[in-house]
Write a structure and sequence with these properties.
Bound molecules: flavin mononucleotide
Number of helices: 18
Structural class: alpha/beta
Largest sheet: 8 strands, parallel
Shape: globular
Distance between the termini: 71 Å
Order of helices and strands: HHHHHEEEEHHEHEHEHHHHHEHEHEHEHE
Length: 410
């Protein structure tokens, strides 16, 4: 082999130094290519109790693991030789077009994960043209969220409390602030057993103990934000000190039935979604009452463990009620491919819970933008690779499932 000394003119084209990015957050977010990457960054930057409150689920966390596994077991059936030079990722949901087939799910106590909390979610959703759902357990008020994202589409999530008048006062405030959809959550008659929270001694608000202080040392940014911004509190509930499970069990009403749902339907002027439906029979009863959508969800695995996987329920529910109501889905969505699979199986729309919160914990508002950017890129690329240019072209023929988790038919 003949060797030679390298010439500067040969080296020059190889030297592609990137412009340095000085902001640590920007650098971190740009290095995240998947929601799983955002989760890893979030874990490093967030105190354990807050991260586990978000990341964790109930009991053995089987519901969540299975929901994610069901998506992992999807096998796509692409069509080739189609013109996919332009694709449209938008979706009509409850009478209004959303730029993407997913929105942000309601999550409680969001400013604990990162101080920008619900405002980061609502403004990012507005910028992306997708709906943002605010929880009854939010840490930012109904009016403040609406004011921060004035052109955005807002949904309000209702937990029915023992004190009906106070619950309905919140609903009235949401209607007055322009929220167009009410999500009535029905899978929390009692709190699920969130064991990580018990083990971590997670309380609301977080308490300073020798352990939490030790945990703070490698996560100074979170603590700095926590101690130098508005104190963390529920925006719609009275002050509380105790565990989340104790709070849920004190406030929420285990006597709520279909009659109450019909009553709420009659009160609310906008669209009603029942969140947490987990059977064909219940989906049919909700449709009879005249709601606008059922959201197949097991609360991200945070309530009943070993609950049905929403993705498995989807075809039967769509067959039974799909002509009367929209069928939405959440739980376990970590990628745009998961969203596309759900739409192909007949879902009108999907919601993301943790995927948004991992972005939030990784980098506040910019982190939520990054989550949406990652998911939307994945949706678009998957559509192209499947040979479709609109979401309406997706059919169940585009998706099959490897049988590892197939429920046994009776
Ligand atoms: C930290 C956290 C808090 C939540 N709080 C609420 C809530 O207040 N109300 C509600 O209806 N659902 C709540 N959920 C459930 C979400 O709305 C959604 O159903 C779930 O996160 C979807 O699963 P995923 O996280 O795998 O996307 C919460 C979920 C998480 C992760």
């Amino acid at each position: 082999m003949k060797r030679q000394l390298p010439h500067a003119r040969d080296l020059a084209p190889l030297m592609k130094f990137k412009k340095p990015v000085w902001s640590g957050t920007e650098r971190r977010l740009a290095s995240a290519l998947t929601v799983e990457d955002l989760r890893r960054i979030a874990k490093r930057r967030t105190p354990r109790a807050a991260f586990d409150y978000t990341d964790g689920a109930a009991d053995g966390e089987v519901s969540l693991a299975r929901a994610r596994e069901a998506f992992a077991d999807v096998e796509f059936r692409p069509g080739v030789l189609r013109d996919v030079s332009t694709v449209d990722t938008s979706r009509e949901v409850l009478g209004v077009r959303s730029a993407l087939p997913f929105g942000i799910a309601p999550t409680g106590f969001t400013r604990m994960m990162q101080t920008e909390g619900e405002i980061a979610g609502a403004t990012a959703a507005q910028a992306a043209g997708i709906p943002f759902a605010l929880s009854t357990m939010a840490t930012t008020s109904i009016e403040d969220v609406a004011a921060a994202s004035p052109g955005g589409r807002h949904w309000f999530q209702l937990y029915m409390w023992k004190d009906r008048e106070r619950s309905m006062a919140l609903v009235d405030r949401a209607a007055a602030a322009g929220y167009d959809t009410l999500l009535v959550t029905v899978d929390v008659p009692v709190a699920g057993a969130r064991l990580r929270d018990v083990r971590n001694g997670m309380t609301i608000p977080p308490t300073l103990t020798p352990r939490t202080v030790a945990n703070a040392i490698p996560r100074p940014a979170w603590w700095f934000n926590f101690l130098t911004t508005e104190p963390l509190a529920f925006a719609s509930l009275d002050a509380w000190s105790g565990t989340v499970a104790e709070l849920l069990d004190t406030m929420f009403d285990p006597t709520v039935t279909y009659e109450d749902l019909a009553w709420i339907r009659a009160q609310w002027p906008g669209k009603v979604v029942v969140k947490g439906v987990q059977s064909v029979v219940d989906a049919a009863r909700c449709a009879e009452i005249g709601v606008d959508a059922v959201l197949l969800s097991n609360h991200g695995g945070r309530q009943l463990d070993r609950a049905p996987v929403p993705f498995h329920l989807l075809p039967d529910v769509v067959a039974e009620v799909g002509k009367d109501v929209e069928v939405h889905l959440d739980t376990g969505i970590m990628s745009g491919q998961d969203v596309v699979a759900a739409i192909a199986h007949g879902a009108t729309f999907t919601l993301i819970g943790r995927a948004y919160l991992y972005g939030l914990m990784a980098g506040g508002r910019a982190g939520v933008d990054r989550t949406i950017e990652i998911l939307s890129g994945q949706v678009e690329r998957t559509m192209r690779l499947l040979g479709v240019t609109t979401l309406d072209e997706l059919t169940p023929d585009h998706v099959t499932q490897l049988v590892r988790l197939e429920p046994r038919r009776r």
